[in-house]
Design a protein that fits this description.
The chain has about 160 residues and is α/β, with parallel strands linked by helices. It folds into 2 domains: about 60 residues; about 90 residues, Cupredoxins -  blue copper proteins (Immunoglobulin-like, Sandwich), CATH 2.60.40. It contains 2 helices and 8 strands. A 4-stranded mixed beta sheet has the order 2-1-4-6, with no helix packed on it. A 4-stranded mixed beta sheet has the order 3-8-7-5, with no helix packed on it. A hairpin with a 2-residue loop joins strand 1 and strand 2. The chain is elongated.
């Protein structure tokens, strides 16, 4: 009986860990994307912005040149020309991934990932695209979630063996 109780606590701990990792953020989060220059090339920073549905992304032009925020497909993003020192904001009403570019400098690309209300956006990497050490941090987070879920399932199966 003692080992079943220990397994129940382990399973409950695994489920609690998953809830902590996936703790909700209120809908309508916001993000800021800087437009800058490094190594004689303009860029969006961060390249990928995460927000919740109903949230707003604001692009701030910190460079000396004009830029745009233009959808790669569709018409979700269609900013006017954003002059030096100016900003452009857009509120997203639907979930999805919205890829965009600057129509003046076509090599400038970025994307906005709009998550459902209550889903916790991952931390934003604010390193410029040319900075060493830029990496995708979603893989380790996904691994931790899967390990926690696996531990919870194993613990629950030991408490109630399959018939």
């Amino acid at each position: 009986m003692g080992s079943r109780r220990s397994l129940a606590f382990a399973a409950a701990g695994g489920l609690l860990g998953l809830l902590v990792v996936a703790s909700p953020v209120g809908a309508g989060s916001s993000a800021r994307v800087g437009i800058g220059e490094a190594n004689d090339r303009y860029h969006f920073n961060p390249v990928t912005a995460y927000i919740n549905v109903g949230g707003t992304v604001t692009w701030a032009n910190g460079s000396d040149a004009p830029h745009t925020v233009t959808s790669d497909a569709g018409s979700e993003l269609a900013s006017p020309t954003i002059g030096a020192g100016k900003t452009y904001g857009h509120t997203f009403a639907a979930t999805g991934t919205f890829a965009y570019h600057c129509s003046i400098h076509s090599y400038m690309v970025g994307k906005v990932v709009v998550l459902a209300a209550g889903v916790n956006p991952p931390p934003t990497d604010t390193l410029s695209p040319s900075s060493p050490g830029t990496q995708d941090r979603s893989i380790p987070l996904a691994f931790l979630v899967l390990v926690g879920l696996g531990g919870a399932i194993v613990g629950l199966r030991r408490i109630r063996p399959a018939t």
